[in-house]
Amino acid sequence: MPMSTNGNVSDNMEPSDLNRTLKEGNMQKILRINTKEKTFTVEQPENALSSMGGRGLTSRIILNEVPPTCHALSKFNKLVVAPGLLSGTAAANSGRISVGAKSPLTGGIKESNSGGLVSQKLARLGIKAIVLEDRPDNDAYSLVVIKRDSVEIVPADEYVGLGNYAVIEKLWNKYGKKVGVMCIGPAGEQCLTSASIQFADPKGHAGRAAGRGGLGAVMGSKKIKAIVVDDTGADKIFLADDKAFKTANKRWVEMIKKHPVSGQGLPELGTAILVNLINEAGALPTKNFRSGRFEFAEDISGERMVELIKKRGGVIREGCHPGCIIHCSQAYHDKEGRYVTSGMEYETIWAFGAHTLIKDLDDIALMDRLCDDIGVDTIEMGVAIGIAMEGGLIPWGDGKAAIDLLKKVGTDAPLGRIIGNGAAFTGQAFGIDRVPVVKRQAFPAYDPRSVKGVGVTYATSPMGADHTAGYAVCQNVLKVGGDVDPLKKEGNVEVSKNLQIATAAIDASGICLFTAFPVLDNEDGVQTIVSLINARYGINMTPNDFLDLGISILKDEHAFNKGAGFTKADDRMPDFFAEPLPPHNTTWDFTDEELQQVKM
Amino acid sequence: MPMSTNGNVSDNMEPSDLNRTLKEGNMQKILRINTKEKTFTVEQPENALSSMGGRGLTSRIILNEVPPTCHALSKFNKLVVAPGLLSGTAAANSGRISVGAKSPLTGGIKESNSGGLVSQKLARLGIKAIVLEDRPDNDAYSLVVIKRDSVEIVPADEYVGLGNYAVIEKLWNKYGKKVGVMCIGPAGEQCLTSASIQFADPKGHAGRAAGRGGLGAVMGSKKIKAIVVDDTGADKIFLADDKAFKTANKRWVEMIKKHPVSGQGLPELGTAILVNLINEAGALPTKNFRSGRFEFAEDISGERMVELIKKRGGVIREGCHPGCIIHCSQAYHDKEGRYVTSGMEYETIWAFGAHTLIKDLDDIALMDRLCDDIGVDTIEMGVAIGIAMEGGLIPWGDGKAAIDLLKKVGTDAPLGRIIGNGAAFTGQAFGIDRVPVVKRQAFPAYDPRSVKGVGVTYATSPMGADHTAGYAVCQNVLKVGGDVDPLKKEGNVEVSKNLQIATAAIDASGICLFTAFPVLDNEDGVQTIVSLINARYGINMTPNDFLDLGISILKDEHAFNKGAGFTKADDRMPDFFAEPLPPHNTTWDFTDEELQQVKM
Predict the structure, then answer these.
(1) 56-75 of A, contacting B, C-beta below 8 A
(2) Sheet holding B29-34, edge to edge
(3) B429 in contact with A at a CB cutoff of 8 Å?
(4) A65 lies in which domain range?
């Protein structure tokens, strides 16, 4: 196959070199793309980077290379896409991908994590990271096509303006119905700070997202509409110790399958299983965080969702990436039995449901689909629409009005530009101070007054309000990995801190975070992950080393944020969380000093 | 006259006490108004506050009483209105007023300074400061009417939704055509972060503004539509040494009248005299800071403005407050000879002119009028409209389109909510990173690459980008108070630092900042101000004490901002000021460390 580089090969490498380096899949290269010049380079990572993957790599590259005070949409920002340390292997659930940049939403560092096909394909091509650099001076969009022997940066005119579902369909028609695709919709093209990057799932649906923090706007600012990854002909992933890997993976699979959450709850009901659980716990934020109980929780519950899916011929137990054995995803169909959306998560259902008082699951599913297609974060959109309700723009609970509003996002309608820039922005537009954000990122689906461990994570994570950064719902509500009272302060700073460390390490491994349930409940949980990594690379990592990796990632991230001007004044809840939350009437009562104890 | 308190007298004082305390004008009281309960208290300031006035008092009260991390629109913020130390006296140009709060625009402390009638009337009533506290739970607006013997907090239904010109007209018809009025327009009611507080000038026009930082939104959040101040029957201001005061004031008047800027340039052409001067200096920011020269500067110059005013029967040489002897203001009339606007400042002409490439002075005058009437900051609006042009919303230089856009501000149109929230917000809405702001406040009319002293002020002032906070245009361009090369770094940090200190002290005195021109050029300048203060209060302030007052004010302000989370990362220019600016092709080249030297 001839080396094709769109005619712009960078000066320091000959095509034949590129050809060779790209072929050597297991050599672990970094692919840098200059989006202004339409050139690329393939480089051997420096030593410090060679042992990193996923979030570890995205955050380190951003810390090293992006000026923390730069404008997130400027040429100085970089978008980094990195498979995890185990991605590309047969390790169960190892196909998650990290996308990082300076966030246009928070102003701090961001790693957003997604399923899809890109992670494993990049890993098999030996690409540890793609780094999108610089920014074009004009509005011409490009498409990046990465194959075993070539990198093409070609005009993307035919895809501009399209929604993510159509983009993926067109790209699959052109490049084959199994290539990995990551792309942006109209919201990313407009550089809206809630813009997501969507990933094709194994069925070619645009239902998987690096949703949080506006990374789609960074990709949009660099005028990259999509990246296609085709690993046809890639060598098999090199394993340093094939036998040890198989042994570890066997235990890994067993652990995941046997745990009641990852082996039963999530497969059966998806993450929507949480609607009833969190409502029962009095922590389902209702009507913009005025209550922890939603009168109509049952109507939007996982049980109800699965009932509808089964009745309408949808699909339960889908995986977001090949190699997933949890299958927490679904395909949700409408009343006529037509596919609507995939991966309708608990947080999405909450944001468009209890938060806005909308109780029609079909309305919520349609909004999930719209978000994936327009390319915006579902949490940020749902919360923003609730804020618009708070401001009197549309009535509480009016699903049809909410859908109409969401449809404006990504169009030229000014209201779309308001909502599409997220909850904090919408709050400012409407003069509302009751806005649930930390570091300008909207709260997910757990009221911090009644799940205090996750509240500590919201307040202190370098990512802004992010449940995945330290999911203390485990110990607070699910009683996985411990039992810490969700309504009291005691123990919750420690729980959040430990989870933030473990999560950062897991995000570096490429493993799905939902494996954390069995990992927390099995003594050999972390050891099993470490054994997989050791067998893959022929190294001698210990469980402590793994946690040290998590600590070093958080240190990188906090260092970037410090440079960007973040202080403890940014690690705080909005004022109104001092109000008591029914039904437990708990308040947010941590001092700044208590919260700062999570820092390394 | 019966004591009227709208039926809600606070528990700790009897009406008769209030009656007495309000009457004792020279006793220097603080009037606190609880906007939720519609009650007030009158208190003797603690010692530390009794020697402060104007910006010194607003910033100290905010530092002491407002949690720096609170939401600026929440009940925790306070709006403080304070005449200066010399306000109410016969000292020339002593009728400026300070308004302070946590800024909804910058997130930091804010003092915004205006002319009008309120300052001297409050001072004569013995009111050192009004402090608006708390916030109603409903949308009912109130009007505060302060007279010699009463404070009324009454429903303002008949004024809601009206523009500032109409509000003042109605209030003058009701309360007499010489009462002081400060009020908000529709923008303040919507809590837009560019909302101003407008002050009636001596003719009852709404042309004077505490424009910057969105203080109108704070007043709007507290549902106070207007404050009326009637000093009828007030005692004469007490002077500790009448003779010394007269002697000092004689010298003060002489100094102001004799200086070429305050005695000649400003009276003849207003601040618009600067259009040609700054254009000549290559520092008139043109087309969103792409050049320092505007091809059509002559068309929007002060010379042209005065020519039109004279031809159309307008007024030159108006004062913004009684006691002004500079008279830098004008009344601008349209082609038919009808009054359009007052106080069309250089910065306003620039923002709607060179910045947006609009060259029709009538369009600019209409936009100035619209801003005053809707109640928004002219600088923030002009810069925001330029950013909308940058985003392709309307064409560069299209005055009619700009007027249409501005007319949406304060209405329900979503575009109005975007523009009305200022330049940084508009930039985010349209995905633009070329946005000239520091601390989210839009740059005024001097390119920092070619007037580097004022650039240092933009970057480091606790107020955000604010030319008035340290107007190094004096030494850089006008060669008043020294001669420092505007194109080089040398000396400009020191110049800005000294000016920031002196300005803070002047803002505490209630004196118009334009007296700084003669003060800088006369050896006895500061001594004369100090002599006036000493004669007023019977104290022994020295010129050094006066500058120490400035330092202490800046320390207060930086302390608040630090608590709000500001760091040196907020004391920076946007990235694009690294581009060379024609015609001098200078860049912004200060390091963070150099800039931090301005801090006390």
Answers:
(1) 68-74
(2) B39-43, B29-34, B127-133, B79-83, B97-102, B109-114
(3) yes
(4) 15-229
For B330, the enclosing helix (H) or strand (E) is strand B329-333
The answer for A 216-275 residues in CB contact with B (under 8 A) is 217, 220-221
Which residues lie across from A42 on neighbouring strands?
A31
pLDDT at A45: 84
Do A123 and A272 form a contact (C-beta atoms < 8 A)? no
- The DSSP call for residue A138 is S
Q: Residues of B with CB below 8 A from A432's CB?
A: 73
The closest of B571, B335, B373 to B456, measured between CA atoms, is B571
Please determine, for residue A443, whether its predicted confidence score (pLDDT) is greater than 70: yes
User: Would an 8 Å CB–CB cutoff place A418 in contact with chain B?
Assistant: yes
Separation between Cα atoms, residue B362 and residue B372, nearest integer Å: 15
What is the C-alpha to C-alpha distance for residues B121 and A568, in angstroms, rounded to an integer? 43
CB–CB of B418 and A417 under 8 A? yes
- Residue where the block lists tokens 């509240």: A455
Partner-chain residue, chosen from B70, B414, B565, that has the shortest CB–CB distance to A414: B414
In Å, how far are A176, A308, A324, A332 from A372, measured between CA atoms? 22, 21, 21, 14
The answer to whether A165 and A341 are in contact (CB under 8 A) is no
CATH of the domain at A201: 3.60.9.10
Phi then psi dihedrals of residue B18, to 5 deg: -60, -45
Is residue B44's pLDDT more than 50? yes
Q: What is the pLDDT of residues B103-134, one digit of tens each?
A: 999 999 999 999 999 999 999 999 999 999 99
Q: How far is CA B142 from CA B26, B157, B176, B228, in A?
A: 28, 8, 19, 11
Asked if B79 and B533 count as a contact pair (C-beta separation under 8 A), the reply is no
Distance from CA of A593 to the nearest CA of B (A): 14
User: What confidence tier does A25 reach under pLDDT thresholds 50, 70, 90?
Assistant: very low
Count of structural domains within chain A: 1
Give a yes or no: residue B439 inside a domain: no
Whether the CB-CB separation of A426 and A388 falls below 8 Å is answered with yes
Instruction: Kindly state whether residue A213 falls inside one of the protein's structural domains.
Output: yes
Q: Are B85 and B536 in contact (CB under 8 A)?
A: yes
Report the C-alpha gap between A350 and A339 in whole angstroms. 21
Residue B379 within a domain: no
How far apart CA B19 and CA B15 sit, in angstroms, is 6
Residue-averaged pLDDT of chain B: 94
Q: Is B404 on the interface with A (CB under 8 A)?
A: no
* pLDDT tens for each residue of A161-197: 999 999 999 999 999 999 999 999 999 999 999 999 9
Q: Do B567 and A572 touch (CB under 8 A)?
A: no
Question: Does residue B424 lie within any of the structural domains?
Answer: no
Both tokens assigned to A93: 């659930």
What's the pLDDT at B19?
43
B567 touches chain A (CB under 8 A): yes
With tokens 């390394």, the residue in question is A600
Residue A183's beta-bridge partner residues?
A198, A226
Q: What is the pTM of this model?
A: 0.95
**pLDDT for A6:** 40
Backbone φ, ψ for residue A91 (5° rounding):
-60, 130
pLDDT level of residue B343 (50, 70, 90 thresholds)? confident
| Interface check B136 vs A, CB under 8 A | no
Answer for the pair B371, B378: CB distance below 8 angstroms, yes or no. Answer: yes
B467 to each of B116, B405, B441, how far by Cα in Å? 21, 26, 11
**Contact in structure between B207 and B119 (CB atoms under 8 Å):** no
Averaged pLDDT of chain A: 94
Q: Is ipTM beyond 0.90?
A: yes
What are the structure tokens assigned to B27, written together?
Answer: 């006793």
B517-548 residue pLDDT tens: 999 999 999 999 999 999 999 999 999 999 99
pLDDT of residue A46: 76
